[in-house]
Amino acid sequence: MPEQESFWNPYRWVTYEKSRPSYRSPNYQHAFAGARGLLDCELEVLTPLVIGNGKQGALENFTRHGVGGVGKPFIPATSLKGAIRSLAELIGDSAVPFSRKRNAPMRLDPGRSVESGARGRPGTNWELDPVARSFGYLDHDGNVFAGLIQFSDAELVGEPNTQKWPRFEVDVGTPRPERHAPFYPDNKRWKFYHHLPGATTLRPAITGQTRRPVAAPPGTRFRFTVSFWNLDEEALNLLVYCLALEEDVTVTLSAAALGRPGNSNESVPLTGPLRHKIGGCKPAWGGSVHIRIVRVRIEEDPLSRYRSGQPPTVLEDEAEIRAWIEKRTASIRRRNDRTMRELRAMLIYSPNDPRRDIRYPDKSWFDRDKQLPPDQKRKLKPTV
Q: If you average pLDDT over residues 217-228, what whole number do you get?
């Protein structure tokens, strides 16, 4: 939301504080080092979820199994892994999987391009950042690390009547970085979209440029599995946090962030869980989901299975799983740096959130903004 405006831009920016990630030599797939196991997860749709099938001429249909897309709807593993990896890159202070040679400077900080994810060359002196050595690495020169985390597709739970899934008419298009500085201030930040808790529809279209996607309605559930092997302690903790997030946080939105005049006494505290956003139509209120880890199977010392016959640890009780998650994520949950404060402010899912007029301004606003000289363009209000 730019200064002096009442609407809430569909997304805000989370600033990353530049620091040195923990580079380490990766554990290769054939090794017996680190932890290995399976995390069975359930994804519940909170606001209408759009996962397009990507086929030309059928971009508005939910992706489905089978020839011609006539089978059960599902969420591709690539969509899930991409969303979790992106979150891990921010929290883990890691590089993004793109080369600076292939991206516009406005969209990618050179200090976060894929080349910064590694030190040295493959071999005995090769070191990778936390995300590269767990999710995988491939740079412009062809240096590759296959990664140690694998996602399955998320399969639909039950047999709901998908023929009655709603179709909405929504706007298309987003602001362009080179033209609209209030929406793209610099390249040192991550983009996150606002939740609109309780939304059962997508925001109706108000322009002539529209699409009509099919959406999975709130309450729809999917199941998927995350497999991992040879993860070091830091990488496993980061993976668990990015999947489970936090269930009870308090976020204080300042008067400046809310666009209210006066002093800091006009701030608003929010309490609630953190939730993910995935898929399409995120600017139009869609894509809020709740991911839960419902079963854990882990070998924290794989060699013990061969030394003493010790079986893997299996957790299926909800309380036991919650305790295991809290232990694994304690160090991240204690963080109160700028990155985590702003991230929590964007991921919190609270019914009392005052940020509800979520929309882009109309075309006339963008036309006026394009004509303003750089020194007169309005700045974004702070995220918290």
A: 97
